[in-house]
Amino acid sequence: MFTFPLRDGDVPIGALDLYKTNRGSLDENDMAAAQTLADVTTAYLLNARARDRARATSNVFHHNSLHDPLTGLPNRQLLQERLTHAAALSKRSHTHAAVLFVDLDRFKDVNDRYGHHVGDALLLAFTDRLSNLVRDGDTLARVSGDEFVIFCEDLRSIDDVEELAERIGQSLKSPFSIMCHDLAVTASVGIAYAGPGEDITDQLVVDADMAMYQVKRRGGAGHQIVDVPHTSPRGDHNVLAAELRTALTLDELDVAYQPIVRPRDRTVVAVEALVRWTRRLRGPVDAPSIIAIAERSDLINEVGDWVLRRACRDRQRWLDRFPGTALDLAVNVSVRQLLQPTFATMVAAALETFETSPTSLVLEVTENLFIDASERVGEVLSALARSGIRIALDDYGTGYSSLGYLAHLPIHVLKIDRCFIADLARPAGEIIVASVNKLAHDLGLQVVAEGVETTARHDIINTVGCDLAQGFLYAKPMDATAIEALLASRTPLPLHGPPQPGPPLGPDIE
Ligand code: C2E
Ligand code: MG
Ligand code: MG
Predict the structure, then answer these.
(1) E runs forming strands in 203-327
(2) How far is the CA of 27 from the centre of ligand 3 (A)?
(3) Are both 109 and 138 inside the same structural domain?
(4) Which of 174, 220, 354, 426 has its CA 20 to 30 A from that of 419?
(5) What is the pLDDT of residues 155-195, one digit of tens each?
(6) pLDDT tens digits, 327-362
(7) Prediction pTM value
(8) Are residues 337 and 453 both part of a single domain?
(9) 405, part of any domain
(10) Contacts (Cβ under 8 Å, ≥6 apart) of 49
């Protein structure tokens, strides 16, 4: 036996053991045969090594193309692949599948305040907490900045997903300790699911995103199962957006008006404009969904502008018929719309076109305005307030319910959300409403109680001293013609259901 070295240039890469079958020393022929065998073996080895390297590199590339570099979690593309794979099996499935869209609230503030290195560390720590909550086999993906998606298959029931969403909320109860900063954060979670045998498509992600967005609109820190009930449950977002665009051009949107009354004498002092849209052949879409679709498809400006102009036009017509009527107009404005550079000009143009005094207009904003947005909010609100427009803080009680910003921002009206009003049956509920009412009054704000549905609640908010009230007890939202009839009757609203014509009363609607 003899050993022949294998070399790559000068670098030894192995050895070839050769066995000589006949006795005697090696001759020239033996050496030549051995050299040939060694060359061939070396070539094989080098080839195999190159192939292994190429495979490893390609694996790294493949892995990188499917994973997020910061957290190492699957990225949007891998999530998509998992959904496609699940879709192929979904028809035969006897279980539920769900997508949770998780978005950290006010993450931008963390980056702005402490820098991106702290933001990144927070994302890693959050990833850690999320990873501990998901089951083996679930996909936890990071789809962008602070947006994560959890895709769960084989769920016994949809309750399991709600439980998971609750556990995500619980997991954020203790703050993160990041580079000497204690960071308390909350998350908004949107959920969409497919029942047994239902199609699993990437539409689930779009729907969950939309549900997450609705949580954000309410002020974040919570979860919601997708609620697009009057559209198709899985209406394609792009189709809805295209339909909404068409509806805008064809003037197919509508506005309903809900009277706002003074509880003391039930006279109507204002109406709130609420957007309405009925899809052809499909029926009505609820207002929060219209707004969510509009915001997601960059149509919010057009929709907001349309509602404001229509409302000013209708009010102008009412006043033409009943000159001297004192009737304020409340119009909801979404954060995205308010932060558009053209917003103030657009409002001014609508007011001018329909000869509406700025002092008759109340713009309703929600608390989420103060979550993600910056000083710009203060500037815009101040500019509006300087022109005489009043600002109402809508749905107070569903978001952070912090009154801190009221001291710094020009807010004139506080609308107590109907969840507080619904709670009036309990003694603690009354105490809360009375305290909020007093605090708001001390800060010089007018108070509107929203969602008053029963005479018992009416009596309490009246006793507590809320300035104004709104709710199904007085009147449901109605079309412009019904408001006209109401103004014609000059009747205080009865405390039971929709308005009825009656003898001329109501000195307050002059
Ligand atoms: P919001 O501004 O708080 O409007 C009041 C909502 O509560 C309306 O629902 C109204 O129909 C409902 N409501 C009033 N009284 C009662 C009551 O006694 N009981 C119950 N259960 N509900 C009552 P709607 O029209 O579905 O609007 C929902 C939300 O959609 C609005 O809440 C507002 O945030 C948003 N929205 C509606 N129209 C527009 C719009 O033109 N622009 C924007 N940005 N948002 C809008
Ligand atoms: Mg409102
Ligand atoms: Mg409200």
Answers:
(1) 222-225, 253-262, 267-279, 283-285
(2) 101
(3) yes
(4) 174
(5) 887 788 989 999 999 999 999 999 888 999 999 999 998 87
(6) 999 999 998 899 889 999 999 999 999 999 999 999
(7) 0.63
(8) yes
(9) yes
(10) none
